Amino acid sequence: xxxxxxxxxxxxxxxxxxxxxxxxxxxxxxxxxxxxxxxxxxxxxxxxxxxxxxxxxxxxxxxxxxxxxxxxxxxxxxxxxxxxxxxxxxxxxxxxxxxxxxxxxxxxxxxxxxxxxxxxxxxxxxxxxxxxxxxxxxxxxxxxxxxxxxxxxxxxxxxxxxxxxxxxxxxxxxxxxxxxxxxxxxxxxxxxxxxxxxxxxxxxxxxxxxxxxxxxxxxxxxxxxxxxxxxxxxxxxxxxxxxxxxxxxxxxxxxxxxxxxxxxxxxxxxxxxxxxxxxxxxxxxxxxxxxxxxxxxxxxxxxxxxxxxxxxxxxxxxxxxxxxxxxxxxxxxxxxxxxxxxxxxxxxxxxxxxxxxxxxxxxxxxxxxxxxxxxxxxxxxxxxxxxxxxxxxxxxxxxxxxxxxxxxxxxxxxxxxxxxxxxxxxxxxxxxxx
Length: 434
Fold this sequence. Notes:
Blueprint: E1 2-10, H1 13-42, H2 51-65, H3 81-102, E2 125-128, E3 134-136, E4 139-145, E5 149-153, H4 157-161, E6 165-174, E7 177-185, E8 199-204, E9 208-212, E10 217-219, H5 223-226, H6 228-239, H7 246-280, E11 283-287, H8 291-294, H9 301-307, H10 309-323, E12 326-330, E13 356-358, E14 365-367, H11 368-381, E15 422-423
Parallel strand pairs: 8-11, 11-12
Antiparallel strand pairs: 1-5, 1-7, 2-6, 3-4, 4-5, 6-7, 8-9, 9-10, 12-15, 13-14
Helix pairs in contact: 1-3, 6-7, 7-10
């Protein structure tokens, strides 16, 4: 099992200069390799843009590329070879993604051809994959970085790793702070026993981040909106600074720190909420939200992205797999908000402004989000059914479009097409053929 351990570094001024030098070396190798590939493509030659092909080219050309223009001496030995390899690996991945995207072999949006990295805009980063890097014996608050030395950490990194094998270490700078991300490999432990907690349905929203079927409400901190005024002020201040000046660099750092604070506030709540859910309940049911469609509404796009629904689901998937809880994903076409949780009547229309659900059949008056959460809980506990035409209702194509597999051809009123049961959650992370 692979895990990521991320810690903050506390380098000295000399070590900060060395870190920036290594990050610049990775960027230089990336740009040099990209220029080489573009030159061969313009000459209508077939370049070798695999990682090992780019490494072979770099080893042959580094004595002529990484040379001081005034003295004529090669400066590449000043940095670890792993920094150059990290830049070439990033370029090889970018070219591979572009090639697969052109051929339709890659999911998601179409990927463009790689562009050169600017020193002013690109995130400084490099990585170690070989050599004597990682933890230091009898020094739990430090990491060893080749050519840089012992770098102090802000926390006990040895306790975080806890005896696991370190496979890779990536170093990057975010908002003026250097961070180290360690990829560690742990032995697979015993299968977690199912929790004894009950079941719960979760309705995600913008006004309230999550409403649980038991009545619990998790407030939405609105991390971006709460800092938007300060962010606008700092961005206006940045726009007035002369390009290339020291004051502009300081203003950019203040803007970056504000963005980092927004991300930290959002991540902190999501981590605490998903951990609580995974440790408390045995069965958790959520909806398969169409976030890409929701952000097309420009009035709600910023609030939807600020809530981070996809990150909420991603964290639930791996945390429930660790604790033994079962995660059920309800089909996105299930009308959880329009259905009465008492009698099952489905409304034809329900505007977004109606925050209280009124049922004309049984007279139920209930909060709209709580009503939806109860319906999601019921649908998650029901067995999976087929739609009215005998199809599965799943998305099986690579583009994840709304597909159907019709078998019958008799007319249908459309109500029974909705799949009431729960889809596959963390209990079936591997692909299944239908």
